[in-house]
Amino acid sequence: MADAPRPPRIPRNRDDDYTAEMAADRARFAAAQTGAPLDHVTKGTIDPALLKGNCENFFGVAQVPIGLAGPLEIDGEHAKGPFYIPLATTEGTLVASYNRGMRLLSEVGGVKTTVIERYMQRAPVFHFANARDARAFGEWVADHEADIRTAAEATTTVGQLHHIQRFQVAQMCFLRFNYLTGDAAGQNMSGKATYAACEWIAEHAPGQPWYTLSGAIDTDKKHSHMNMLHSRGARVVAEVTIPDAVMQAMMGPSNAKLFRGRLVSNAGGMLAGTVNNGMHAANGLTALFIATGQDVANISESHAAITFVELLPNGDYYWSITIPSLIVATYGGGTGLPTQRECLEMLGCYGKGKVEKFAEICAATVLAGEISLAAAVQHGDWVSSHDRYGRNRP
C-alpha cells in the first residue's frame, strides 16, 4: 500500500518573507487548503515589513472590535487626569460595565494608584552532588553578586539586575534573578542576561557546577504563589473610598450590602482555591492587552489579584485591588504596531518612560470593572444586562 502524499508546506521566501506578495501567496494557499473564503482575514492596514520579530508566516489579520470607556479619573504617581480607555473585546456588556464603574470612580474624585515594585525574572537551577555543596554554592553567589551583575548587564543597555533570590531543594540551588527592564516587559531580555550570568558562574564557581537555565520558579506564562509573594512584572494597587449615598444613587446597592457580598465572595473564593478573590480582572486586562499590543498570554499571570475592602464607621466603603504580577510594556514587542501604537498613544503611554503610567491605568481600569460587576450582582441586574446587551443572536 503506497504511502499517503504529504500535505504541502506553507509558502515561504528565505530571502524576504515579510512582503505583501508573500502574505497574499499564503492567503491563497490557506484558502485553497481549507476551503474558507478568507474575505476579511486578508483585509488589513499592516505593512508586512513591520512584522519581523512579531509574527511568522504572516497572511492576514484578526480584527477585534474596540470599544471606548471613560472618562476614568486617576490620581496616580505616574497617571494623572481623565483617560479614555480602549477595550478590544467581543463580549457584549463588557465595555458598558467598565464604563459604568469609571463614571462612579470619577464621581468620587478618581482612583488612587500606586506602583509598589516592578521586576522581571529568570530562574536557573544549579545542580550538585549533595545538599551541603548546594548550600555552599548559595553562599558563594551571595558573595559574588556584584560580579554576576556585571556579567548579566553586559548583554543589555536597558536591563539591570536588581537582586538574586536563593531557594534550595535537596542538592539543587534555585536562583531567581530579578531585573529592572525599562519600558519593555523583559522576558527575552532577562533570559539573555541570565544565560550570560550562568555561563560566568559555571566557569568561576567552585567545582564548575552545571545548570538548567529555567528551573520553573520564574513561572513564565503561568500563575504561581511565588508571584503573589515576590512580584513578577508590576505590583500595583488601585484604591478608592466611596460614600454610601453615591454608591446607592449610581449603582443601586448600599455599601453594607456590598460588604456582605464581599464576605461571601471571600469564602467562596477560598472554597474554590481561586487566585483572585475579586470579580473579573481578566476581562478588562485582556481587552486592554489586545488593544495595546501586550503579550496576551501574560494574562495567565496578570489576572491574579487580591481585593481588600473595609466598611468604614461613617458608612463609606474603602475598596482596593492589588495586582502582584502585572506584565505590561510600552516599548518593544507588539506595542509599536500601528493599531496598538495608536491605542497606547490615546493613553499617552507609547514609548519610553511610560510603563509605570500604563500599569496604573491598567489597575484603575480593573477596579472600575470590579465595582460595576459587584454592584450588578448585588442589585440583581447582572443577568438582565447580559440578556439585553450581550446576546449576539436572534
From TrEMBL:
<keyword id="KW-0560">Oxidoreductase</keyword>
<comment type="similarity">
    <text>Belongs to the HMG-CoA reductase family.</text>
</comment>
<dbReference type="GO" id="GO:0008299">
    <property type="term" value="P:isoprenoid biosynthetic process"/>
</dbReference>
<dbReference type="Pfam" id="PF00368">
    <property type="entry name" value="HMG-CoA_red"/>
</dbReference>
<dbReference type="InterPro" id="IPR004554">
    <property type="entry name" value="HMG_CoA_Rdtase_eu_arc"/>
</dbReference>
<keyword id="KW-0521">NADP</keyword>
<dbReference type="InterPro" id="IPR009029">
    <property type="entry name" value="HMG_CoA_Rdtase_sub-bd_dom_sf"/>
</dbReference>
<dbReference type="GO" id="GO:0015936">
    <property type="term" value="P:coenzyme A metabolic process"/>
</dbReference>
<dbReference type="GO" id="GO:0004420">
    <property type="term" value="F:hydroxymethylglutaryl-CoA reductase (NADPH) activity"/>
</dbReference>
<dbReference type="InterPro" id="IPR009023">
    <property type="entry name" value="HMG_CoA_Rdtase_NAD(P)-bd_sf"/>
</dbReference>
<protein>
    <recommendedName>
        <fullName>hydroxymethylglutaryl-CoA reductase (NADPH)</fullName>
        <ecNumber>1.1.1.34</ecNumber>
    </recommendedName>
</protein>
<dbReference type="InterPro" id="IPR002202">
    <property type="entry name" value="HMG_CoA_Rdtase"/>
</dbReference>
<dbReference type="InterPro" id="IPR023074">
    <property type="entry name" value="HMG_CoA_Rdtase_cat_sf"/>
</dbReference>
